[in-house]
Specification:
272 residues, alpha+beta, Arc Repressor Mutant, subunit A, 3-stranded mixed β-sheet, 12 helices, 15% strand, disordered N terminus, disordered C terminus
Amino acid sequence: MKGPFGALNYWRRIMKLTKKELDSKLDSIVNCEAFVRALKFKALQHSYSHLNCILIQSQRNNVTYVLPFKKWNALGLSVLKGEKGLAIIVPRFRKVEKSDGTKDDELVGFATGHVFDISQTDAPPDFLIAHLNRDFPGYQNLLELAPVPVVERPLRKGLNGYFDSKELAITISSSQSEADRALTLLHETGHYLVWKNKLEIPQELEEVIVECSAFIAASEFGIDATAPSAGYIAGYLNNTEDLRKASKVIDKISNSLLKTYERSEEFAESNG
């Protein structure tokens, strides 16, 4: 599948386009179906932006797990001869001095990077199973790291939990299974992170973003979760601009969720 971003020389040209022209090209491949496919892909590889996940999948069928050439080599694997890399957009930064004397990274532009799918390497069939090996750390281990107090109590039917910004607390339905309580905890923590970061997002759009972000985090922690459907996404995001805006916020919230609860796996190992 070549698609609109299939040829490498095309990618070299596209990085020279103006932002307006680049946005137009990206809009041609961003839709609800691509959005959800990329969401499932990002759940395996959260280090790539959601938009880059869409770009990767537009260039090759059945992509499952990608890494740059040197990272495959570092794992003792080689990219097969003749395989062409999948182009991604890589931000470029420079160090700038702030008014208080500290230094910070400033975005100065973008470059083209390349990654290769596992199917383009000599990896054995069971490599991903051994490499990922994600076991659910347990609800209690996640609970220990919650950024605000968590209360469990019976809630009305259909309500799994909620975040209260006035009380700065999360309430979770006590009638759920441990795995479902973990999913609810991730979801409501997502709402807390939107509030904490003062993101001004319409309520319906926030719900989509939090649902997608919780799915990515749950997948990382080995929790069985179902990705939001394209129909669900389409019910809230009506145009390409909304989809692209949501992609950026999903990156921010899902990464924050993972940082918040990343030590849960260490807790599980120490208590195992």
